[in-house]
Amino acid sequence: MNLNDVLRRVRFIFDFNDNRMIEIFASADTKVSREQVCAWLKAEDAEGYLPIEDREMALFLNGLINEFRGRRDGPQPEPEDSLSNNMVLIKLRIAMNMQSDDVQALLEETGLKFSKHELSALFRKPGHKHYRNCEDQLLRNFLKGLQQRQHAGLAKQSAPETVTPDSSSPVTPNPWER
Predict the structure, then answer these.
(1) What is the sign of the dihedral through the CA atoms of 4, 32, 56 and 97?
(2) Distance (Å, rounded) from C-alpha 107 to C-alpha 119?
(3) Which of 12, 63, 117, 153 pairs as cysteine with 27 (C-beta 3.0–4.6 A)?
(4) Residue 86 has what pLDDT?
């Protein structure tokens, strides 16, 4: 999957502005400019578009992990020079503090059914005999599921609470109803 597309989707899912994106990179001990971030977020056919390199995307995902889960003690992990869909999926899963069951449920919400064995194959090392490549559609569905959950959570937070009277609370009659 195009890493610029992943970056755009993550930005949309969490509603990050340019400053927040720069802060996430800084969390991985990397300095990026607003111009770089804007160029990475442009559409492929737009003037000024710049493809994000694998190492830069790995730094962003490491920064996302640091922001959501906290920095780990000691030296920071070295960013990968080459990112696969599997690595993107693993890093997003870590950042969101998701277990395999959570990922499986999220994918099922988007219409993809995976057994635990199929899912665990995505998180194995590439040389393992049961390793399975994460296809673009799977990563898209994972991001779609994150988006649905995140935006549903925001909708619940912004919705006014409805109070339902129970037997222990007194109900005051509405004087305007008759």
Answers:
(1) negative
(2) 10
(3) 63
(4) 96
**Per-residue model confidence as pLDDT tens digits over 92-139:** 999 999 999 999 999 999 999 989 999 999 999 999 999 999 999 999
Using pLDDT thresholds of 50, 70 and 90, give the confidence band for residue 74: confident
Amino acid letter for position 137: Q
**pTM confidence score:** 0.82
22 falls in which pLDDT band (50, 70, 90)? very high
Domain ranges of the chain: 1-82, 84-151
